Amino acid sequence: MRIIGSDYDGTLNHNGIDDIKRAAIERWRAAGNVFAIVSGRGVEDMVKLYSENKFGCDYFVSDSGAVIMTPEGKVISEVRCDGDVARPLITKLFEIGCDSAFVHTEFPCSVFTDEEDVIKKDGIHFKNMPEIPWFTQISTFLPDHESAKRVTATIKELFGDKVNPMQNGTCIDIVRNDMNKARGLYILAEHLGVEKEDIIAVGDNVNDRDMIAEFRSYAMANGVDSIKALADYVTDGITELIEKELE
């Protein structure tokens, strides 16, 4: 048994998910292998996308590795960050240029500083934010790549003993300091009894760096240069990767 751990945005979903791609994934699974989505997206997002796009998948490694579950909703692993860091972390995000914080916890928690956003996006104003008991991930967005890079560095400097902020374009995903996509794949592999040499990672952006560096890996041809330089192979997509691995 081997595992393909695939990023979703820009990787599996690069120019859509067509029947050719779906058929390739099914050939991989029919050969006794596992196909897993490894994404910064949260559980609810992944379940929705899976339902809408109807592609074969055995596991979601969501929240940048912090949550592992089956598409049917069975949670295999959930790595939580203590809630005591949530308020000071979100406070700092708003102080340094963010206007939203999406907290993956036991209740829906989309936090904003603008009253219009609160109403329009059915969120909570920061001044009314409840105590966060724990979280698997906090995500935020910035207006441009450089702002996201700056905020990521600041959060790493101030809170790096507790959390790991990962930039993905203009988005920042923040998980517990010992978590990333590679760690999530290791947890899934342990659950399945799969060794490191049988894990294949594929991604396109800087938040895929840990798994691209850790495992035998492919970078998408449309990906950022630093990831392509780090990967073992460059590929045009999931179909090409699977065909190569099944040869």
Characterise the protein shown here.
This protein is α/β, with parallel strands linked by helices and 247 residues long. The protein is built from 9 helices and 16 strands. It has an 8-stranded mixed sheet, with helices on both faces. β4 and β5 (75-78) form a beta hairpin. α1 (19-30) packs parallel to α9. The longest helix is centred in the middle third of the chain and has 15 residues, at 145-159. The two termini are 15 Å apart.
Quick structural summary:
It contains 9 helices and 16 strands. It has helices at 19-30, 43-53, 86-95, 115-120, 145-159, 181-192, 209-214, 225-230, 238-245, and strands at 3-6, 34-38, 59-62, 67-69, 75-78, 81-82, 100-104, 109-112, 124-125, 134-135, 137-141, 163-168, 171-176, 199-203, 216-220, 233-235. The chain has an 8-stranded mixed beta sheet with strand order 5-4-3-2-1-14-15-16, with helices on both faces. A 6-stranded mixed beta sheet has the order 9-8-7-11-13-12.
Secondary-structure blueprint of this entry?
Layout: E1 3-6, H1 19-30, E2 34-38, H2 43-53, E3 59-62, E4 67-69, E5 75-78, E6 81-82, H3 86-95, E7 100-104, E8 109-112, H4 115-120, E9 124-125, E10 134-135, E11 137-141, H5 145-159, E12 163-168, E13 171-176, H6 181-192, E14 199-203, H7 209-214, E15 216-220, H8 225-230, E16 233-235, H9 238-245
Parallel strand pairs: 1-2, 1-14, 2-3, 8-9, 14-15, 15-16
Antiparallel strand pairs: 3-4, 4-5, 6-10, 7-8, 7-11, 11-13, 12-13
